[in-house]
């Protein structure tokens, strides 16, 4: 615990903004059943605003993506990280273009919608057809082909709010697979209720997939509010609802991008790497403040604090991955470029859950590494973090490290409000919870500092653990 407190003190000392008085000492837990540990100011929110304001949207292969790489290189160097470099990655490039959706009959309603990432566009005059609804992919599969052919399929899947974010994992297959499932039955387009927990008119975009064995049809997400309107009209007027969809999106040739890497060099175990990952790209509707500006700020600020506290035993490596949102090319490129040293990656963590407070710490790795993990968990307990019994997941960008047996640690954040703004135009610094982000940075700083400085090993993770 003494090391954790020293690291948190270093965090406060190197924050961008002057420290502000806290209701209790940040090094102690408050008393009482509703106590919440108070984190010192971290300066992470300033980094989120810098990335959002100076770069903005940064979909892979776009001009914003190139600006983001330059921003990351400049920011890492200014922080004093070592070995800062851009490692080239070829990434897919997709453009949104103009988009519009309208309920035509029985009542006219213009709706707020967004093309799903990777969707094909419609013909210039759009697509107009009767709408048929399904509540799930299974329900769509059960519909007779004659009921779907020549129509627009609407999938009405309501995502559940949960502090772990598990509702997203349950609902997102609808977004990913809807176009293939609908096209198999002859649909001319697919629309769906946004995968999100808000009740606004801000549609949520996100990646989808095609299958070369079936035709590629246009795919878009309605705002949750407009999806509910369509759902009610369909319930009252089955067989009488028509919809017009116009999408100007297109896929362009692959483009150049990069993973941006910087390090806090280690001491006696410098050859071993503690990897901190976040993703540099974002969707094009907002400025990616939560997804994943908060994660970027979190790992950078934690690395800076570890560096300020002295030389850790192991090297701490920050990797800002390219193309997480619509392809994962950056994660695959990193695993390939570093395949000869993955056996020396001691542990990996990923920050891609917004600005919420850290509530739990989880582990996925060898049984012999659990004692080392338990020591980390004990250091975090006074900050209000519990040791989770379930295995760590690790995040999308750590997936390609699994076959090399790299252990993973999750610092599970409170995600109850994250999916209100995720993949929408509202993902800007205006929705940032600075105090919650400060707590997350403090927890990350203590955890990473402990993992980088302890002598104990986490061993190797069984491949089947992922």
Task: Give me a quick take on this structure.
This protein has 466 residues and is an alpha/beta fold.
* CATH class label of the largest domain: Alpha Beta
How many DSSP helices? Answer: 12
CATH architecture of the largest domain: 3-Layer(aba) Sandwich
In total, the number of domains comes to: 2
| Beta-strand residue percentage | 15-25%
Q: What fraction, in percent, of the residue positions are helical?
A: 25-40%
Mean model confidence by pLDDT: 93
- Can you write the helix and strand succession as a string? HHHEEEEEHHEHEEHEEEHEHEEHEEHH
Biggest β-sheet strands, sense, barrel: 8 strands, mixed
Q: Biggest sheet: strands side by side, in what order?
A: 3-2-9-5-6-7-8-4
* Termini gap: 30 Å
Number of strands: 16
* Strand-pairing-aware structural class: alpha/beta
Shape: elongated
Structure description:
Helix content is about 30%, strand content about 25%. The strands form three sheets. An eight-stranded mixed β-sheet has the order 3-2-9-5-6-7-8-4, sandwiched between helices. The protein contains twelve helices and 16 strands. It has two domains: about 1-20 and about 35-90 and about 255-465, Aminopeptidase (3-Layer(aba) Sandwich); about 95-250, Glucose Oxidase, domain 1. With about 475 residues, it is of the alpha/beta class. The chain has helices spanning about 1-15, 45-55, 65-80, 135-140, 145-150, 165-185, 225-235, 290-310, 330-335, 370-380, 420, 435-455; strands at about 80-95, 100-105, 110, 115, 125-135, 150-155, 190-195, 220, 240-245, 250-265, 270-280, 315-320, 345-350, 360-365, 385-390, 410-415.
